């Protein structure tokens, strides 16, 4: 999946819209009831259903039953519209719950971000915005608060949040790609496995690649799939948080893993 928003919106115009510091040049030309928020909602629904390739000012105007030129009274172009859509999507995140240990907080943050990407897979097609809209700043502040007060420097706090978010984005991309493959092929992983397993058994020479054969059979038997998205995400997240734990312990002078933030149990749960 490659980025589709290669041309970002004009920074000054996007920021004015994100922070609502500038009213549209003339509302008189717009249809009564039309607003920036309504345009963003319609555009998001279109992108959710069909992806960014299908997004255009014309398609959004059709969804709102207005003329295309009416939209330009409110939003200058597609680049600025996507900037607005991304920040609006971040408003879905709960930035109020700051309870629990740092590990539990990062755990919730990671899952919330993954769920957001799965609800709005088009976000994975956008170039990471440089624009700090109100919802992005609220998200960033919430995520930093999860590791505040642990003895990390400000730069280490930022890098820790970036590490977790980068992991989430990468695995969400794999999950979304797997879902698209299932949709396009009309065959889910279990159906594919039932079809391919006997063929592979007949074709592959296990003696040539014994480790791959053993592990592949074990994974296939366990998950009945080539890629078990939920398992892989949970397993990798705990390993990422284990790495953060090492840093936290080093900064606090603690040798006992888990004293400050909880230990990951053998099943991947936080205890």
Précis, in short:
This protein has 271 residues and is mainly alpha-helical. The protein has helices at 11-18, 36-50, 57-64, 68-71, 78-90, 102-119, 134-145, 154-185, 189-203, 210-223, 229-252.
If you compute it from the alpha carbons, what radius of gyration comes out, rounded to the nearest whole angstrom? Answer: 23 Å
Please outline the major beta sheet. Answer: none
Number of helices: 11
Mean pLDDT: 85
What percent strand? under 5%
Q: What is the chain-wise order of helices and strands?
A: HHHHHHHHHHH
Keywords: DNA-binding, Transcription, Transcription regulation
Protein name: TetR/AcrR family transcriptional regulator
Pfam families: TetR_C_1 (PF02909), TetR_N (PF00440)
Domain HTH tetR-type: 33-93
Write structural notes for this entry.
With 271 residues, the chain is mostly helical. The chain contains 11 helices and no strands. The chain has helices at residues 11-18, 36-50, 57-64, 68-71, 78-90, 102-119, 134-145, 154-185, 189-203, 210-223, 229-252. Helix 5 (78-90) runs parallel beside helix 7 (134-145). The longest helix is centred in the middle third of the chain and has 32 residues, at 154-185. The two termini are 36 Å apart.
């Amino acid at each position: 999946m490659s980025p589709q928003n290669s041309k970002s919106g004009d920074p000054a115009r996007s920021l004015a819209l994100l922070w609502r510091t500038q009213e549209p040049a003339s509302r008189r030309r717009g249809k009564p009831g039309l607003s920036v928020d309504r345009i963003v909602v319609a555009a998001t629904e279109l992108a959710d259903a069909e992806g960014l390739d299908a997004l255009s000012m014309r398609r959004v105007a059709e969804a709102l039953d207005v003329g295309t030129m009416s939209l330009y009274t409110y939003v200058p172009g597609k680049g600025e519209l996507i900037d607005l859509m991304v920040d609006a999507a971040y408003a879905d995140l709960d930035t109020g719950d700051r309870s629990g240990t740092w590990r539990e907080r990062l755990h919730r943050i990671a899952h919330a971000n993954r769920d957001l990407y799965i609800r709005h897979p088009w976000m994975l097609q956008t170039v990471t915005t440089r624009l700090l809209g109100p919802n992005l700043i609220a998200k960033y502040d919430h995520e930093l608060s999860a590791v505040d007060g642990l003895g990390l420097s400000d730069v280490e706090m930022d890098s820790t949040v970036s590490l977790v978010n980068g992991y989430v984005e990468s695995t969400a991309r794999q999950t979304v790609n797997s879902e698209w493959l299932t949709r396009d092929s009309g065959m889910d992983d279990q159906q594919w496995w039932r079809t391919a397993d006997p063929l592979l058994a007949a074709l592959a020479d296990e003696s040539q690649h014994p480790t791959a054969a053993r592990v592949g059979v074990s994974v296939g038997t366990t998950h009945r799939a080539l890629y078990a998205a939920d398992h892989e995400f949970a397993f990798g997240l705990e390993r990422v948080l284990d790495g953060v734990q090492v840093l936290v312990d080093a900064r606090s002078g603690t040798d006992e893993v888990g004293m400050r933030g909880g230990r990951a149990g053998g099943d991947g749960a936080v205890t």
